[in-house]
C-alpha cells in the first residue's frame, strides 16, 4: 500500500514557514546593502556598527540587570508559593492565593501594563529600572509557581517524613531532600522567568522611564526610525547565544544522566 505524501509535504511547508524567515534574516545580516531587496555581497559592516552603538549595549545591560534580579526573586517567591499551595491548598485562604497567582497568566499584558502604570503613578514611584523590576516580578512569579507546582504533584512527602524520623532537622530535610528533588522544576521556572523578562515588551513599554530602555524597547525604536540591517545583525547574535545556551544545557543534562547511570 502506497503511503500518502501529504503529511511530509505539510511538515515541509510548516518548517519552511517557521525557519525560512530566520534564514533570510541571518543572510541579510551579512548584506552590506541598506535595504535587503538585493544582495551586494558578504560583509560584516552591520556587525561593526552594532558594536559601535553605545545605546544598544546600554539596553542590553539594563535588560540583563532586570532579568537576573527578576529571576532570583521570582524563583524564591514562586517556589515558596508553590509549596504553600500544594501543602495547604484545601483552605479558603489558599484558594484565594491560587487565584492571585493564576491571575497574571490570563490577564492581557496591555491591561497589566496600564494598571501597573496607574499604580506607580498613584503611589508616586518614579518610572525606571525599579518599576520594570517590580512589573516583571509580578508575572514571572506566577510562571515559576506553576512550574514548581507541577513538579510537586508527583512529590512523595513520605521521604521527608522518613528523614525527620531518622533525626534530620527541618532545614536539613529541606536542603538535602526537598530542594534537590524540586531542582528540575526550579531550574525550568528560572529559565522561563529569565526568558520572559528578557523578551517582554508590552508591560515594559508602560512602566519604563528615562534611562531605563531595555533591549525590546530599543529594537522597537530602531525599527520605528529605520535601522533594519543592524537589527538583523543583533537578532543573529541573539540567535547564536540562544542556541549555544540550549546546546550547553543539553550537554550538561546528558553528562548528568550519564553520571547517574554509571553510579547506578
Order of helices and strands: HHHHHHHHHHH
**How does the major sheet shape up?**
none
- From the coordinates shown, what is the CATH architecture of the domain at 52-234? Orthogonal Bundle
Strand content: under 5%
- From the N-terminal CA to the C-terminal CA, the straight-line distance is 46 Å
Write down the CATH class of the domain at 52-234. Mainly Alpha
Low-confidence stretches: none
Predict the CATH topology of the domain at 52-234: MetI-like fold
Rg, please? 23 Å
Q: What structural class is derived from the secondary structure elements?
A: mainly alpha
CATH superfamily of the domain at 52-234: MetI-like
Characterise the protein shown here.
This protein is mostly helical. It has a domain at 52-234: Orthogonal Bundle (MetI-like fold). Helices cover 79% and strands 0% of the residues. The chain is built from eleven helices and no strands. The longest helix has 36 residues, at 228-263. It is globular and about 75 Å long. The relative contact order is 0.13.
Distinctive features:
264 residues, MetI-like fold, globular, single chain, mainly alpha
In brief, what are we looking at here?
The protein has 264 residues and is mainly α. It has helices at residues 6-28, 45-51, 54-87, 92-106, 109-123, 129-152, 158-165, 170-199, 202-207, 215-225, 228-263.
Topology:
Blueprint: H1 6-28, H2 45-51, H3 54-87, H4 92-106, H5 109-123, H6 129-152, H7 158-165, H8 170-199, H9 202-207, H10 215-225, H11 228-263
Helix pairs in contact: 2-11, 3-6, 3-8, 3-10, 4-6, 6-8, 7-8
